[in-house]
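Handout for the seminar on molecular recognition.
Each group receives one record of this type.
Step one: identify the two inputs.
Step two: read the structure output and locate the region that could contact adenosine monophosphate.
Step three: write two sentences on what you found, then compare them with the reference statements printed after the record.
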Amino acid sequence: MSILVIGSVALDTVTTPFGAITEGLGGSGTHFAISASYYTDIHLVAVVGADFPAEHLRFLESRKIDLRGIEKVPGKTFRWTGKYDYDLNNAQTLKTELNVFEKFMPKVPDACRDIEYVFLANIDPDLQRQVIEQVKKPKLIACDTMNFWIQGKRDSLIRTISKVDILTINEGEARLLAKESNLIRAAKKIHAMGPKTIIIKQGEYGALLLHEEHIFSAPALPLEDIKDPTGAGDSFAGGFMGYLAKTGDLSLPSLKKAVIVGSAMASFNVEAFSCDRFRNLAMDEIRERYRLFKHLSHFDEIEL
Ligand code: AMP
């Protein structure tokens, strides 16, 4: 099954303790689409400015991502400037320049309105809802967000969240959204807002899946060489949704496997700046990494 995604397509300027990149290919929609493209057909809705390099569009096309929903308009592309210190779990936003996203009205191409799997990557919650309104018979809607929107457009965000099945969110942002420091209580409050499934991303500590009354904890791969965590959350979501859309199986065991696929995709993303690790990532490497995750967290029963 195909996935329809709306999100930012950006030029990111990022500094980490291990290097820096100026105006590299980024954006929540971009990272999601590239990651999910390993599993199924992806249709991306977004806007870019006249300054957006054609080579970035060519890279997305090389991943067979459908770009008919990307508008190119006069003006400047969305830009994000961020920095990480040695604690790579927390991005510091230095600058957010919405630019062409300020006046953007997403238009889902007619041919994409029947798509059943929808991902609302991190972007203005008003735009996320405009996409929900244009799809005819969604089977699964998942959504991501960040502190920028939790603080800046809280009411609109809560309206969007009330319409989705799954919310993926960082640990700190879950606390901010729920106004609750205990994560389990925060998740309960978010469940009450609408989504029956919540994934709390904990950076280098992994991810928690809270589905109805079940909790599943997935580790992150202990990696020796991390360059840039930007986009890890979106790559996670891409692997997670990609696996669900590919199998069409939304049972709890399938959700758990999808969380590990997502974790594997995030673990690749952080190995290079921007989306560069995906320029030469082969499916066999993904399979191998899934196995590594299995070994990492497997243990046997004991008799005590
Ligand atoms: P993450 O997966 O959370 O690391 O997402 C990083 C991506 O989110 C970057 O490539 C940014 O371009 C994008 N981003 C940052 N701030 C925003 C925002 N306010 N709205 C939409 N996208 C954003």
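Reference statements: The longest strand covers residues 19-26. The two ends are 46 Å apart (CA to CA).
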